[in-house]
From TrEMBL:
Coiled-coil features, chain-numbered ranges: none
Protein name from the UniProt record: Multidrug-efflux transporter
GO molecular function, one term: xenobiotic transmembrane transporter activity
Signal sequence range: none
UniProt GO BP: monoatomic ion transport
Membrane topology, record value: Multi-pass membrane protein
InterPro entries: MATE_fam, MATE_MdtK, MdtK-like
Length: 460
């Protein structure tokens, strides 16, 4: 054990240093959704919470392809950094922003379109009205969100994750202030009720996009990547590369997000109380999940950098270090969920014992699938670092839509386990993905040879 620790200690240390700021930044992003739900639940009650929570889930579903697709940028930039190619890093940065504009327009229109047909989701009339209008506002925020994600890939890929962390934490504070003043109408601001929460998200995301791009263009540490001669370099091939690698990666993310969004929809079929309880529990699970995606992103960057140096041993160590870190972290999260479920639910809702009881039960169940959730998302990150995206997409489709969702429906409706049955199916899908994705990574690592090109490795 001591010998193993000595071997992996340098990689664990580097991954932790890289992961902590990314984890904090990811936590800040998801805490914006938590903040929205906290303000809506405390000030407006269970039905607005159900409508807003479902809208956030569905809006995130629509944007997930763009969010997951743009995340490939950090691994590509890390690979280029491993090769010492500053011009390529500039081209990847500009190509990422171009892809973000494309995603922002396309998925913004898609979000507005499904908001128009919100009644087809089979929710109660009150939830439908709230959800339709809430979704329209959130659709506008896709563009600044994508621009922020695309720009932060440069910071993360070059191992400067504190930039995005600082901006995200500032935006989190702004989001809380905006929520309060726009929901309640404090001071000169109008009382927008539940829709004030959506406007708060829009304003916070605009701040994030403007702040990160402005910092990158002004900071001395990034100057070498913005030499005047780089402006003449074409980015068409790099934009296509990001789309070619990013879209399958985005679909991988989509399949998982879609699973949870459809699970929320099924919970709504059972009733508004079940949906509200589901939203509370899934909000907590999403918090730990997004923190695990920070470790996943760090793993992808470390794997990508080692791949750029064609170092098979370093690639393997980077993957193992990420798996060890996420297993330890998610084990602690599971312990908190299992022992503090009632207290955690009380942070969201009071005065509704039926919803609180349901939510407390679901939080316990969420504690059990923390490990699977963490391992599978790190598996995706490790494979992204290898620029392997097609097979993980198939694995995710199988695990979530062939295993997870059908079992959720069977347990929830056929076997009458109610909303708890929906969560049993989710656990099954996550566990399947957690087994298959790391197996894929270690198989690919064995095929790395120092003189191979990236294309020769992954064309099989």
């Amino acid at each position: 054990m001591k010998q193993w620790y000595q071997i992996f200690k340098p990689e664990l240390t580097k991954t932790i240093r890289l992961a902590i700021p990314i984890v904090i930044a990811q936590l800040g992003v998801v805490l914006m959704g938590v903040t929205d739900n906290l303000f809506v639940g405390r000030f407006l009650g269970a039905v607005p919470l159900a409508g807003a929570g479902l809208s956030v889930s569905l809006a995130f579903l629509v944007s997930s392809i763009g969010v997951g697709g743009l995340a490939v940028g950090a691994a590509l930039i890390s690979q280029a950094n491993g090769r010492g190619n500053a011009a390529e890093i500039n081209q990847l940065f500009r190509a990422g922003l171009r892809a973000a504009w494309l995603f922002g327009v396309v998925f913004g229109l898609v979000g507005a379109g499904y908001a128009y047909y919100y009644n087809l989701f089979g929710q109660t009339p009150e939830v439908t009205v709230i959800g339709r209008n809430f979704t329209l506002i959130l659709s506008l925020s896709n563009l600044p969100l994508f621009l922020f994600i695309a720009a932060r890939q440069l910071c993360d890929g070059l191992a400067y994750p504190r930039v995005a962390m600082s901006i995200t934490l500032s935006a989190l504070l702004l989001n809380a202030v905006f929520n309060y003043v726009l929901i309640t109408g404090a001071g000169p601001f109008p009382a927008l009720g539940v829709y004030g929460s959506a406007v708060a998200t829009l304003l916070s995301r605009i701040f994030m996009a403007v702040a990160v791009i402005a910092y990158i263009r002004r900071a001395t540490v990034f100057k070498r990547y913005f030499q005047p001669s780089f402006r003449q370099l074409s980015i068409g091939s790099y934009t296509r590369k990001i789309l070619r690698l990013g879209l399958p990666g985005g679909l991988t993310f989509f399949f998982e997000v879609a699973t949870f969004s459809l699970a929320a929809m099924m919970a709504g079929w059972l009733g508004a109380n079940q949906l509200a309880a589901h939203q509370i529990a899934i909000n907590m699970a999403s918090t730990t999940y997004m923190m695990a995606t920070g470790i996943s992103a760090a793993g992808a960057i470390r794997v990508g950098n080692a791949l750029g140096r064609r170092n098979q041993m370093a690639v393997r160590r980077a993957g193992v270090a990420a798996l060890v870190l996420v297993t330890g972290f998610m084990s602690l999260c599971a312990l908190v969920f299992l022992t503090g479920n009632d207290w955690l639910v009380s942070l969201y809702l009071r005065g509704n014992p039926e919803v609180a009881s349901l939510a407390a039960t679901l939080v316990v169940m969420a504690g059990f699938f923390q490990l699977s959730d963490g391992v599978q998302v790190v598996g995706i990150g490790m494979l992204r670092g290898l620029s392997d995206v097609n097979v993980p997409t198939i694995i995710s489709l199988f695990a979530y839509w062939i295993i997870g969702l059908p079992m959720s429906y069977i347990f929830g409706f056929w076997l009458h386990f109610d909303v708890a049955g929906i969560w049993m199916g989710l656990l099954a899908g996550l566990t399947m993905a957690a087994l298959l994705l790391p197996m894929r990574f270690f198989r690919l690592v064995r095929q790395i040879r120092p003189m191979d090109t990236e294309e020769r490795i992954y064309t099989h």
